[in-house]
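Could you join me in thinking about how sequence relates to backbone shape in a protein? We need material for that, and I hope you will provide a protein of your own picking. Once you have written the record down, we can walk along the chain together:

…
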Amino acid sequence: MNTQNKINGATKPRVSKTDWLNAALDVLRESGIEAVRVERLADKLNVSKSGFYYHFNGRADLSAALLEHWKQLDAVPMSQMRNWGGASPVDVLQKVVETVSLYDLSGLDMAIRNWAATDPDVKKVYRKEAKQRVAHIRRIFESMGFVGDDLEMRVHTFVGYTTTERLVFSDMKPRERARLWKLRMELLTQP
């Protein structure tokens, strides 16, 4: 909320579309798609719900924008690969894991997956995104010379673990997570 609006001498925050979408993602992650309601989002943002209608035509419009917003966030690790040009494949995989952690993409992945279980259109989008994610990671492991079942095992293990580790092992301490990450990368990247 960077901008402000003066109304009758009082300063009120102006909430951006991204603010609404981020609040919606938080609610989706915490409580599921049914909880993503205008009133709840307005309460979360501490604004009136009339501001919602400045950015969205209704709940269906919010849902479409929310899914698009998630797709953009989900693409962050892959889009940032362009900035990692000189990095080794192992370093790129490390940066992917760091980015997934930074943006809590594993938490969002679970929320979108749950939403996809109840909405065929979301399911189609989720599957497409998941396939693209796997394809990017596959190219990294292919660049290390892995092929066939050896390649697929590494790709699936990396993607599966990266998208679920924080959810399944939420109590793990950062030092232990880093130690296991190092061991896992040694295992996955050695012929």
